[in-house]
# Entry
Amino acid sequence: MTILLLSGIGNTGLPLARLLQEAKQSFLIASRSPAKLPEPFKGVAFDWFNPSTYENPFKADANIDRVYIVGPPVLDKLPQTKDFVELAIAKGVKRFVLLSAAGTPRGGLLNGKVHEYLAERGVDYAVLRPTWFNAVKQGLVASTVGNGKIAFVSADDVAAVAFRALVDEKSHNTEHIIVGPELHTYDEAAALLSGVLGRTIIYKHLTHEEGKALFQSVPLPEDYAIALLGLEKQIADGEEETHFHAEVKEVGKVHLKEYFEANREAFVA
Ligand SMILES: NC(=O)c1ccc[n+]([C@@H]2O[C@H](COP(=O)([O-])OP(=O)(O)OC[C@H]3O[C@@H](n4cnc5c(N)ncnc54)[C@H](OP(=O)(O)O)[C@@H]3O)[C@@H](O)[C@H]2O)c1
# Structure
């Protein structure tokens, strides 16, 4: 039995691959550049924007029965994901684990519609809804979240929940809100990072228009940038904080300061 990772070796894909390797679990990584995957990982060519690649994983391994999904980088992730999931079901896949986000509930933006579809499709599934991870790496210096608090979670902690959802004998068939062990504003995060690096990191509070220009410079399409700004507004309004206080949740182990210490190199300009 083989687990397919539709995640490249991205933020959660790499730590998840390591956990599966340690557990001696058979797995295959779908990537746009399979030749570039580090040893000993086995990859297969896959591109969400090229449906002719959707069959590749099943040609490479006839025993795929579970799939970890990090969806296509578009605003509405349902069309491509649904096409792939229907093919996978026809090929014998029994369980899907979807990476969504705390800020996007079932039926909502981005992965919300995929969440709804999986929950209603009659397959075994789990949906991971983590708060922000590595967002710090990408956007600590500037954003529109103001003084909103976030329970930053490490990608390793998200991968640990993904691992259980994939390998546990009984499918979870539910969503998992995943938070880090403490709440921080971006100003507090910048102060922690300054302490670790030994130099001052200033967090710049952006207006909506400045935030939009920043996302579009990535570059991201305008509708995607607006959706992400909507998620940042939720943080500014204190909504991310409510996930931290949720009754049912998974709490990661890695503190933000530990994350900065472990990834110091990534922040040294
Ligand atoms: N970042 C956060 O703080 C955060 C928080 C909560 C939820 N999320 C959710 O996590 C998901 C993305 O995570 P991320 O931003 O951290 O991404 P990521 O893990 O850095 O990237 C995902 C991987 O997707 C692969 N990929 C990109 N375009 C592809 C394509 N056209 N076809 C096939 N594979 C492709 C890439 O691998 P290859 O280069 O090997 O193809 C990449 O490594 C989103 O759904 C987001 O909503 C993120």
